[in-house]
Known about the structure:
This protein is α+β, with helices and mostly antiparallel strands. The chain has helices at residues 4-25, 76-85, 108-142, 151-184; strands at 41-45, 48-51, 56-62, 65-70, 92-95, 98-102.
Amino acid sequence: MNNTWQTTGRDKMGQVVKLITDDLATLSTGRARPALIEELKVEAYEGSWLTLKELATISTPDPQTLSIQVWDQSVTEKIVKSIQNSNLNLNPVVDQAAIRLHVPSLTAERRQELVKAVKQKVESGRAMLRQIRVDLKKDIDAQNHQPGVSEDDIHEAYDQLQELVDGWHARLDELEQKKEQELTSL
């Protein structure tokens, strides 16, 4: 029996978990983290969209402040405008050669909204894992009538597939719990 579906499955499911991890990193927890803004798109030069991390150095001088050192001062105003237009609710202050962002503490209401957003993002990851499972099951089913492949082999492959999916679901659950704890413990 051909087991290439296992390698493919691990790769695809790993990509899903990485995607969800990166997505959860963009949620504000009331602490200043460069991940909050580094993927923010800025129209730096006529028709050229770049991420903020491609235009500046982002640091955290203290737990509530982000400092953005812009490499090309001609794009400072465009960066400020992109931050203001984002849904991050951050107010940029231009301070000589840097842009400073104060990350406010979260209210109880905002924390609950973010917990819901975490649940939605993780559930979308689970849905992606289920779709990958369906695709891999089709790969296994395609081997059903090949020479040297028995019904027991197929059932064993189904069991292995389910174990694989359960493992990745557990990783998503860990991410969800960790992020929820981070949001509610501040």
